[in-house]
Amino acid sequence: MTRSYASFGMVAALGGALLLTGCGGSDSPAAAPAASLPAAAAPSGAASGSPAGQAAGAAQPTQSTNPSGGYWPATVQLGHNDKLGKTVVDGEGFTLYRFDPDSANPSKATCVDACAVTWPPVLANDKIVFQGLDKDKISTVQRADGTNQVTIGGWPVYRFSKDGAAGETSGEGVGGTWFAVAPDGYKAKDSSY
């Protein structure tokens, strides 16, 4: 089930604890947040290239995690990678990805169980802030476990647990099915966004 951007406010008013509200993004990359940030890491600026001093182990999302897989980032925002161009990143600067077996029309998330541990889905809540993204491209899809996952251009988005530092794109091309997502939902490497 896909939730349209316009229905977010109505659902949140009815007490939906895991639903997206306050999408403060716009067409402009300089858009200000529309909701307050939770006590998580603030946006880390540009995610460009491969940073020096990469961590040896896999970095797990640290913003808020769901025991059945997934996490709630403080922000989802426009990023840039020297090789891929415009990408979507979380508030810590980690690259977000899309999965080819998922679908965008209708939105459907198929990465569950062990897959969702390696590729934590970006889950929606009422405090998430979108920066520099077109609000018409942002929505959610309900996952099999009842949580709601953020979609960009209809595509459910994930973070790769083996990206060790902000700006890394080690998930790009994994299995021929995982790709950094562009702000329009296309694969970043193929997007003209």
What would you say this structure looks like, in words?
This protein is mainly β and 193 residues long. The protein has one domain. The protein contains 2 helices and 12 strands. The strands form 4 sheets. The protein has a 4-stranded antiparallel β-sheet with strand order 1-8-9-10, with no helix packed on it. The longest helix has 6 residues, at 8-13. It is globular.
Shape descriptor reads globular
Largest sheet: 4 strands, antiparallel
Total number of helices:
2
The order of strands across the largest sheet is: 1-8-9-10
Instruction: Give the beta-strand count.
Output: 12
Order of helices and strands: EHEEEEEHEEEEEE
- Taken as a percent bin, the fraction of beta residues is 15-25%
What is the mean predicted local confidence, pLDDT?
74
Q: What descriptors fit this protein?
A:
193 residues; four-stranded antiparallel beta sheet; three-stranded mixed beta sheet; 22% strand; globular; disordered N terminus
Write the layout of secondary structure elements.
Blueprint (H helix, E strand, L loop, with lengths): L1 E2 L4 H6 L61 E7 L3 E6 L5 E4 L3 E2 L2 E2 L5 H5 L10 E3 L6 E5 L5 E5 L2 E2 L1 E2 L18 E3 L13
Could you provide a short overview of the structure?
The protein is mainly β and 193 residues long.
